[in-house]
Amino acid sequence: MKVAVIGSSHGGYEAVRGVLHDFPNAEIDWYEKGDFVSFLSCGMELYLQGIVKDVNSVSYATVPGMEAKGVHVHINSEVTDINPEKHTMKIVDVNNGKEVSTNYDKLILSVGALPFELPIPGKELSNIYAMRGRDWAIKLKKAEIDPEINNVTVIGSGYIGIEAAESFNRAGKNVTLIEHNPSILGTYLDPEFTDILAKEMEDHGITVKTGQSAKEFIGNDKKQVSAVVSSNGDEFPADLVIETAGIRPNTKWLKDIVKLDDHAMIVTDEYQQTSEPDIFAVGDATEVEFAPTGKKQLIALASNARRQGRSAAYNLNEKRRKTTAVSGSSALHVFDYKFASTGVKEVTAKKIGVEVESVFVTDTKVPPFVPAPYNAKVYFKLTFDPKTREIKGAQIMSKMDTTANMNTISLAIQQHMTVDDLAYADFFFQPGFDRPWNIMNIAAQKAQDKLDK
Ligand code: FAD
After folding, report:
1. Residue range 292-302, pLDDT digits in tens
2. Reported pTM
3. Which residue, 136, 187, 193, 369, is most buried by CB atoms nearer than 10 A?
């Protein structure tokens, strides 16, 4: 069997690994249009903050390493067309434009997404950057040490915007963060958390401007960006703009090849099969089943791309295992605070059409007699369906690392557990690690009280 995998980031890498594992006799061709395989944008912050020194190490695989496993790796090779009927595809060498054709038996697409570029006046100016992929990582690192760049404006305060703002603040730049939602990190956390995090950013010298969007980029006589004008009419100085205002699926070229939905996402079934039986798709160009609702939606996470990649490989010849529903579990730090969230938040509930209630509790990580720095305040919010009592989501934050609790909640959501299941669930206690009642127990007991009133 000849298997072609297109794209070498999380989804593509996992698909190749899966095919190697499940079909050891398969001939695998792995195509990547960039000059590098398997760059992991998730590691970009660690690189920008100097924790990881070598940009090339931010990867799972190397060309020689994968070739040694028998994979034919084709870098600088952009797949530009596919003929599903004939099982052929065209590949262009991005260095010289030379085109070749080849055939496949099974094909896995992991073509990912592209950063959204704001269509506003001044968008053609230089020094307007994105933050995705190795090329941008290298450019951003250079900008961090460029003495000509003092003022940096970051547009968008999702995970990537937060990572950009903190990295450039740590590099000594004067950073402004513009967010069109009423609060930062609006799809990940409710205001009980984001108010504290916005203050944390401001305390470190970042100017946080919420409830306004970028309307225009102003340039200087060198055609470089010099300021960002917001919807409020405010003007923020900017020698560099980092746009982190969302992504779009990289699927324009696929529109007549496989079925796309209204948002240009590749339509797949739960086995990752597209409208073409021998073409599978995974990653940020596809949707995943959101466990709290059972509906498909875009949740652009490496963890999802990996699961889907594994699934696609496993199901190449027959539908053997469905891709697991996910809850969009994710974690990040904002300076000293570490937070994680999973499932539905109150800020997102309306948008996805679910009715939820929540309880918010604060506690200390370990018993109060344990002093700092071995102890810290913990903020926790549990979200549930008031009718079925099913757990639908949670958020946690502390200056100590309590984020792994979200994996427990993610599993509870996946298994349709209720607040009653969680209220007295057995969690360990040892004063160096925890309290006799884990904060998840406490919140679930409070939820029972609220529901039983
Ligand atoms: P992509 O990563 O978009 O990669 C697609 C690849 O396909 C690219 O290499 C591209 O060059 C190649 N390609 C595209 N079209 C073609 C073609 N026609 N021919 C050949 N090659 C092609 N997720 C987490 O779970 N945790 C995190 O901490 C996290 N942090 C992140 C931080 C940043 C800064 C960013 C940008 C993302 C982060 N993510 C994180 C999200 C995660 O990186 C993505 O969900 C994941 O990379 C998606 O993988 P993918 O395989 O769908 O595609």
Report:
1. 999 999 999 99
2. 0.96
3. 193
